[in-house]
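User: Sequence in, structure out. Go.
Assistant: Echoing your sequence, followed by the structure tokens.
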Amino acid sequence: MGFTVSNQGDVTVVEVEGQLIVGNRQELKQKVLEDLENGARKFVIDFSETGYIDSSGLGVLVSLSKKIREKGGELRLSSLNEDLRTLFELTKLDTLFRIADDKAAALEGF
């Protein structure tokens, strides 16, 4: 369980491995906010290796999205499995985030 951060051009890509839950959400938040403070404005969080997101994980995504938008940036999500996509639809968070089928699609037109 962890996070891999890389840059693809001027886009910061964070890959979430395992679960995004109460125990690791602060680590994700710190990584993204650090890059935001250093001038990054375009973020993709890739969930291709993620099976579960709890309510605190959803909360941190909403919080990050707000902070990034306040700085004039954008946060996109990619590679949600069927269960996660349903979760975002049920909570109406699919209207807050631009959700792409895969990382390549999320990076397009950024």
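User: And one key feature?
Assistant: The chain has one domain: 2-13+24-79+90-107.
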